[in-house]
Fold this protein.
Amino acid sequence: MTCSEAGPSAVHPAMPTLEARKLLTVIAPREFQRFVIERLADCGASGYTVTPATGSGSTGLRSGMLATDANVRIEVILPEAQLGATLEGLSELIASGYRVKAFVADITLLPDRP
């Protein structure tokens, strides 16, 4: 049965169970990307997604027009049990002077396996 055949309110008998996870999003200058990813890996992150990011905030405008004026957005999906150590690792980077912003959201994830 396809989505269009089922309709918006149909319940599929084999609907998979969704898994609760945390989405950690880190905004950092592009030159710090390697350090942030290394810290995430040290804390057990097995994967991540990096995209360019531009904007303005407490550190000023980051237009992305120059290599030294570009931010990245790094997203990691983690189990809640891993979140504390990961945030602690990022806090150490921030305390060392890295311009890093991090925020967390609750998400539900369709599992990779049935």
